[in-house]
From TrEMBL:
Keywords: Membrane, Transmembrane, Transmembrane helix. The lineage of its organism: Bacteria, Bacillati, Actinomycetota, Acidimicrobiia, Acidimicrobiales. InterPro entries: Bact_Kbp, BTAD, LysM, LysM_dom_sf, TPR-like_helical_dom_sf, WH-like_DNA-bd_sf. The chain crosses the membrane at residues 119-141, 181-207. SUPFAM superfamilies: TPR-like. Residues 1-31, 77-108 are annotated as: Disordered. It comes from the Bacteria. Residues 378-434 form the LysM domain. This is LysM domain-containing protein. SMART domains: BTAD, LysM.
């Protein structure tokens, strides 16, 4: 083992004050020379640390100081930053003085002595473990049992006899037998321990050889045996360099061989060699002139965020090529292995990285994904039905110029989080930049890029270098920082994009899932005759530093509980609206913002995680109540594994695993195993909310009532967004249906119209209001958790939550907080939990949870409130006395030219898309169409319901939440064409889905929907007598088999309001048919028609009224009461329902029962 003499000659006092001229002008150190130095040092570095600390206790104030010095010295050799051929900058001395000066002979003697001593020690320990101890065990076994094996003399299992087994189990054990058992067991344990030590020592040695002397991570189960094995392996590391074994240097040599150093002229405060991974080696070096007054790091860095892994980081930065990802991941490991991170942990295991770690990055293989500067030009707001071709034709005068629009906006990220990667797929609401020239428009930084583009120095490559780089199609990567002055690139014959390097700290923000920049510009293509003009951009250093350190929160895309609750609340309110709707009424149009928010919420993959959380909490509630504890937090990962943390230690039965205050149920345990115990308990945690996501990607839920008080310690804007997210989550939670929510300085929209919401002016009045709302719950001897878990007396024992914004006065929390929770963006006077930011993550103290919280901006809360504020239906004002022929003319005029000849003949159709129930496509004789892809059936359904805007771009936007390849969409269209043609031959010369030279994708007019048939039948039956109306309506009503789009997960019907529209058509048709049956006295017809309508909207008031009248007409008053009971059950089945019946139905019931 080497002593401190290993680093002899590297003391600052011995460094040359001026680089030798010979080294500066001649060759630099080659990669092989660098690797030779690294191989000779790294293999012995970490074993030398222990000896170095022992020898220098008198000169180092703390062990950490010595370790820092050793790390600093090793880094100087590893990175070559001290080499005079790399920079004109004087090396920076160690942070603390007092490095001992030793002469060369002393260092050499110490090194040799230490190496020999440690090698001999390891040999001795190994001899004891593999020779002395086995010899002693064998000798003891022979002396006692007459053989070397601990089991010598024990009969083989093949010789066992039943009588001897019974005798051994029934007879008393003698003292000699007990002694033999103990000795044999001790011998076997000793042999196992020896085997463990030997295997662990081999593993430690292999790991140290592979990873530059770094030992294996500590394994808790091994304990002292691993320490002994590590001690043995450390001594044998002395002879490894002599054997020429260093696996780590092989990969590193391959990595450095690909790098080409660039000459750097720094100021006195800069010490950073700049590497370029892909510059042509034959080109002239790039010169970087720095004007920064602050020191910069020599390598790019990456701040680890929640959910990151080494491979994931490499995939984002070096993808999509699999080999490039593997190489880059290996390079990241090589660059960081053994480094001590900011939290004191050391990177020793590639499978474990922690949030907030700053990883050194090797040079990126490409800058293809870096944001660029682009000129400002006209902006076009995309509307429904538009395509790039139509926009180019309208705004640029020629549809052929659509490529210019696509090139200018490619890879941009819009407000809805989507990117423009496919020219056939644009979304309504996008703002597209139209082409403009660089000369006509000032070059500025596009909106949203301020937080991504760092301060950079002026980069002026030589003409030969730039030309070579352009010809090879490779971008130069120069990660340096400073003040932006001028960026000039020389162009050759081929156009090349102008790239601005994005620092890796900022690149984290642009690639992380929870941060979406407003805009990412594409490169500007220049013609052969054009010369790129210099692009000038200036941003302040203070602004860049402020934005790069911005505290992050999780966006709506990870709000599992919030999205599930909002969609459930939305469904309840829409069903209530449909129940109260009348025949011939219409639904109001869905606002675009509300439709966009609903689409985002429905795209969130909730799975069964929230259900597992709720059932898991209820299943342990009684055991926790018996222990006098509370549920503090629940964590669930993407696989469904649930971990619960309690306020006191509890004991749980299988399938729960763990102990004390932490228990978990694995993901493979079905939720049905927890259901029996969950059914015995009530909902004990009505204030359970999702607070955020932890570094492992697990969703973090906390019980606000158990926390009692929670202070969000952050900037006012961020703190308000977190409190608003908590308020919206509670307002949409089924568990908090009867919880009182009191807000102070929180937007009313965040509470989604919660029936128990109360506003207050000050925190003091809010707390008083909350205490009053809780009532006698606070006076109970038992805790509210216990009362709810045991479903005591049928009461809900509802709590109250006070939510305080940043504009309020400080909160003075009461001493008794029973059934009361406080979430505040201002300080709380009294004991409280505190959620505060530490770098890119947050910590909840004193619970000790690390997470990134959910945040909800004010405009997002407004959009969600607009979505759940379901307006009532509009009563129809149409004149239904017009003849059907006039109605056909009106309807065809409304549809316009997009559906020529559509509905000219009610019987002129061949295929029908069934939407009122399970989605299917059938022929006229009822034969179903067989599709190879489910998306093909969805495409036909979408085309049949969107004839006014049946374009390829609109179809792709609706059918896929993410962008898809052109080939994927083409395969879906082809499958739909073939399937329809196989089921029914199209008219001669036509196809069911026409082929066009434009973006149009029309569906043949002989393919209709069941809604079309019902709509036409309703028009025909308006002025017909009851018998004829029944004959017209009955065949089409029989096509209603369930709720619209039943059994599907389509995103577009609900977001567009189409599901409710179709449900309204179904209830209108069934109610009118039932009314005609009732007028002719056909009671069975009434029940059949209304039953189909109630399949679509259970509890529909008009249909229930018709059924009650039919029972009364038949003299069946018990049937009237039965229908009323069914109606009340439908009312109370939904959460958030107050069970208040319709006044008209109440009067009808009273009237019928008095007859």
């Amino acid at each position: 083992m080497l002593g401190p003499g290993l680093l002899n000659g590297l003391q600052p006092s011995r460094w040359p004050s001026k680089p030798p001229e010979r080294e500066h002008n001649s060759s630099r150190r080659t990669p092989c020379e660098v690797m030779a130095i690294r191989a000779s040092i790294s293999d012995l570095m970490w074993p030398a640390l222990e000896m170095l600390l022992r020898r220098q206790r008198t000169t180092c104030s703390t062990p950490t100081t010595c370790r820092d010095r050793l790390r600093w010295r090793s880094k100087a050799i590893r990175s070559g930053s001290w080499s005079p051929s790399r920079s004109k900058v004087k090396p920076v001395p160690p942070r603390r003085p007092g490095w001992p000066n030793r002469n060369d002979s002393s260092d050499h003697e110490d090194a040799m002595t230490s190496r020999i001593a440690h090698l001999l020690r390891s040999i001795g320990l190994l001899a004891v473990v593999v020779i002395a101890l086995p010899w002693a065990l064998i000798a003891g076994a022979r002396a006692r049992f007459g053989g070397a094996s601990p089991l010598h003399g024990v009969p083989s299992p093949t010789d066992w006899e039943l009588s001897r087994i019974v005798g051994a189990l029934t007879s008393r054990l003698t003292e000699a037998t007990l002694t033999d058992i103990v000795i044999r067991a001790a011998l076997m344990v000793a042999w196992v321990a020896i085997l463990v030590v030997v295997i662990t020592a081999v593993a430690e040695l292999v790991h140290m050889i592979r990873y530059d002397g770094i030992p294996l991570p500590a394994i808790r189960a091994l304990g002292p045996s691993q320490q002994l094995a590590r001690l043995i392996a450390t001594g044998f590391m002395v002879i490894v360099p002599a054997l020429g074994v260093s696996a780590s240097t092989v990969g590193a040599d391959a990595l450095i061989a690909e790098r080409t150093p660039i000459e750097v002229d720094h100021d006195a405060t800069t010490s950073a060699p700049v590497w370029n991974t892909q510059l042509d080696r034959s080109s002239s070096p790039v010169t970087v002139r720095s004007s920064s007054t602050e020191s910069t790091e020599s390598e790019s860095t990456y701040v680890v965020r929640s959910g990151d892994s080494i491979y994931g980081i490499a995939q984002r930065l070096a993808g999509p090529d699999a080999k490039a990802i593997d190489r880059f991941a290996s390079a990241i490991i090589e660059a960081n292995l053994g480094r001590e991170m900011g939290d004191g942990q050391r990177f020793v295991n590639a499978a474990f990285i922690d949030v907030g770690w700053v990883l050194q990055l090797p040079p990126l293989p490409s800058l293809a994904q870096a944001p660029t500067l682009a000129p400002v030009g006209p902006v076009h707001l995309v509307t429904e039905g538009e395509s790039l071709w139509s926009i180019a034709a309208d705004r640029l005068g020629a549809g052929e110029r659509w490529r210019e629009i696509f090139d200018l906006n490619q890879s941009r990220q819009f407000d809805d989080g989507r990117q423009l990667d496919d020219p056939d797929l644009i979304h309504p609401g996008w703002e597209l930049y139209l082409p403009g020239t660089v000369e006509d428009s000032p070059s500025v930084l596009l909106p949203g890029l301020e937080s991504q583009v760092p301060l950079i120095d002026e980069v002026v490559p030589s003409d030969d270098a730039a030309a070579s780089a352009v010809k090879s199609g490779v971008d130069d990567v120069v990660p340096v920082t400073g003040q932006v002055e001028d960026v000039s690139l020389a162009a050759d014959d081929d156009p090349a994009p102008d790239n601005v390097w994005v620092d890796d700290d900022e690149l984290v923000a642009s690639t992380n899932d929870d941060v979406q920049p407003d805009l990412v510009a594409a490169p500007v293509n220049l013609s052969d005759s054009e010369t790129p003009t210099p692009i000038t951009t200036e941003i302040s250093a203070h602004q860049s530093e402020q934005e790069s350190s911005e505290i992050r929160v999780v966006t709506l895309g990870r709000a599992t509980m919030m999205s599930a609750g909002i969609l459930a609340l939305l469904g309840v309110r829409r069903r209530e609206r449909l129940r109260r709707s009348r025949s011939r009424s219409r639904l109001p149009a869905v606002p675009p913002r509300a439709a966009a928010v609903e689409r985002v919420l429905r795209s969130i993959d909730v799975g069964d995680r929230w259900a597992r959380v709720e059932i898991s909490v209820r299943s342990v509630a009684l055991a926790v109540a018996d222990a006098g504890g509370r549920v503090l937090a629940v964590l669930v990962d993407q696989t469904g594994e649930v971990e619960i943390r309690f306020s006191t230690p509890v004991e749980l039965d299988s399938p729960w695993e763990g102990g004390g205050e932490r228990w978990r149920v694995p993901a493979h345990v079905p939720i049905e195993l927890l259901a029996p115990s969950a059914r015995r308990s009530g909902a004990p945690c009505p204030t359970l909310v999702q607070l955020g996501v932890d570094p492992d990607g697990r969703e973090v839920y906390v019980d606000l009532e158990a926390l009692e008080a929670l202070h969000i310690d952050a900037d006012p804007e961020i703190a308000d967004s977190i409190v608003s997210a908590v308020a919206t989550t509670l307002a949409g939670s089924i568990l908090a249906e009867v919880t009182s929510l009191v807000g102070v300085g929180i937007p009313t929209a965040a509470f989604l119209g919660h029936r128990r919401y109360l506003a207050a002016d000050t925190p003091a009045s809010a707390i008083a209001t909350a205490i009053e709302a809780v009532g006698s719950t606070r006076a109970q001897e038992r805790s509210p958790f216990d009362l709810r878990a045991r479903v005591t007396s049928g009461e809900t024992w509802e709590p109250a939550v006070v939510l305080v914004g940043s504009g309020a006065d400080p909160v003075v929390a009461p001493g008794d907080r029973t059934a009361l929770a406080i979430v505040s963006a201002v300080p709380i006077d009294g004991p409280a939990h505190r959620l505060s930011a530490h770098g890119s993550t947050w910590t909840l103290e004193p619970a000790g949870l690390t997470l990134v919280p959910l945040g909800l901006e004010a405009d997002e809360a407004e959009s969600i409130a607009q979505l759940v504020d379901v307006p009532p239906t509009d009563e129809s004002t149409d004149d239904w006395t017009l003849p059907p022929s006039v109605w056909h003319e009106i309807r065809d005029a409304e549809l316009g030219d997009t559906v020529d000849d559509h509905h000219t003949d009610d019987h002129d159709w061949e295929l029908v898309a069934c939407l009122l129930g399970p989605v299917d496509v059938t022929t006229r004789d009822g034969q179903p169409v067989e599709f190879a892809r489910s998306k093909s059936r969805e495409l036909v359904a979408w085309l049949a319901t969107h004839r006014d805007r049946s374009t390829r771009m609109a179809a792709r936007t609706a059918l896929w939440d993410l962008d898809v390849r052109d080939a994927t969409f083409a395969n879906v269209v082809s499958d739909a064409r073939r399937a329809l043609a196989r089921a029914q031959e199209p008219p001669e010369g036509d196809e069911w889905i026409a082929r066009t030279l434009t973006d149009e994708l029309p569906l043949h007019h002989k393919v209709v929907t069941d809604v079309d048939l019902i709509d036409r039948a309703l028009i025909e039956a308006r002025l017909q007598p009851p018998d004829q109306a029944i004959a017209t309506l009955a065949p089409v009503v029989r096509r209603i088999t369930g709720f619209p789009f039943e059994g599907t997960s389509y995103l577009w019907p609900d977001a567009e309001g189409l599901t409710s529209q179709l449900a309204l058509v179904a209830t209108t048709a069934t109610s009118e048919l039932a009314a005609h049956y009732l007028s002719v006295g056909d009671i069975a017809g009434v029940f059949d028609a209304t039953a189909r309508g109630l399949q679509v909207v259970p509890g529909h008031e008009e249909l229930i009224g018709l059924r009650m009248q039919a029972h009364a007409q038949a003299g069946d008053l018990a049937g009237v009461r039965h229908e009323w009971d069914q109606y009340e059950r439908a009312l109370t089945r939904d959460p958030w329902s107050d069970g208040e019946p319709s006044r008209k139905l109440v009067e009808l019931r009273q009237h019928l029962l008095r007859r």
